[in-house]
């Protein structure tokens, strides 16, 4: 059960929040667990089973900046003098032809920002934006995702969950004035990053995507007809690391398979891998320019709206969405995304330009097995990444056949209106 207490001075927002909750319900969220009430304080209070979130805003008098988050709509700061309070979110800061939403990441205190075309908002629009932020916080979206969806919601009807890429703000990749810096941007000339375009990957030729930890598994699965595989060796000090990577790449070439190397992009370049997969934190230290110039496909992990919008500016070969369900194969900083969010991410991605078409290839990952695969596949993703479902199976061949049946049960239609087959 989640309880939202609305300050009595903004009691009219109760109806606004109820409206957003109804939109969320129509899109699959379990809003029956959310209760609305009124608070005598000047702050919003969102209570969960194990914690409480206190949210303030300058739309209420008197101002009370205490709390976990303070949403600053009305104060018109100079761009380079936005508040430095850790809990403050500065909204609609105007700089030239663009406006910015600027905040601090709640865990590491780094500054983050969204940019969008400059368009002044009236008081009623501030309240509509606030109702979205409060509702999304109650649905346990992180603040960066709340801000991205709330800003996009200002450009669609009140009955609609935003899914069009054109409506969403763009994460700021680098701005020295705000202290926002991406290490990998230092590789490029000014504005070069916007022209990155990693090698095309046919979404209909991805098929099942096992993630394994040895070249032995790579060979075994390639022989069973799997076409796309990732080698993920967690220990960088493993004695035969380079040999494992070289052999896996060679096996991919031998069997005409799409073998991706997780993390070790230098070795992937050295031996001419088909592709590389990187996590969000790994992007900072990888030489993206070299990977692009080598024609190596690049897959990137995402865990929500902000990361998805951020990496879409890098133009990778595919986007991984996860983790969908709880998983024990890797320690995750984010919560499981679930099927409702996965479906919404997929709807958004279908509107993003990708080479000469729309819609990046997508790979769902995290806790997927034969029982959950049909539900995940119905969200419209291009591929299912599996780990334990394969590596712990007593009969991997039978498990592969099970996934093949699931992924071929619905004929997908390509942009030309023709039925397409997926490989495994």
**Which oligomeric state applies?**
single chain
Largest sheet: 9 strands, mixed
Shape: globular
The share of residues in helices is: 25-40%
Radius of gyration: 23 Å
CATH homologous superfamily label of the largest domain = Aldolase class I
What is the fold named in CATH at topology level of the largest domain?
TIM Barrel
Strand arrangement, major sheet: 2-1-3-4-5-6-7-8-9
Q: How far is the N terminus from the C terminus? A: 41 Å
Structure write-up:
- The chain has 424 residues and is α/β, with parallel strands linked by helices.
- The chain has two domains: 2-181, no CATH class; 188-420, Alpha-Beta Barrel (TIM Barrel), CATH 3.20.20.70.
- It has helices spanning 13-26, 123-138, 143-153, 215-223, 241-254, 265-270, 280-283, 288-293, 305-311, 338-349, 373-377, 388-391, 396-407, and strands at residues 2-7, 34-39, 44-47, 52-57, 69-72, 88-95, 98-104, 111-117, 170-171, 209-212, 228-231, 258-262, 275-278, 297-302, 318-322, 353-354, 357-358, 362-365, 383-386, 412-413, 419-420.
- Strands 2-1-3-4-5-6-7-8-9 form a nine-stranded mixed sheet. An eight-stranded parallel β-barrel has the order 10-11-12-13-14-15-18-19, surrounded by four helices. The protein has a two-stranded antiparallel sheet with strand order 16-17.
- 41% of the residues are buried.
- Residues 411-421 have low confidence and may be disordered.
SSE topology sketch:
Layout: E1 2-7, H1 13-26, E2 34-39, E3 44-47, E4 52-57, E5 69-72, E6 88-95, E7 98-104, E8 111-117, H2 123-138, H3 143-153, E9 170-171, E10 209-212, H4 215-223, E11 228-231, H5 241-254, E12 258-262, H6 265-270, E13 275-278, H7 280-283, H8 288-293, E14 297-302, H9 305-311, E15 318-322, H10 338-349, E16 353-354, E17 357-358, E18 362-365, H11 373-377, E19 383-386, H12 388-391, H13 396-407, E20 412-413, E21 419-420
Helix pairs in contact: 1-2, 2-3, 4-5
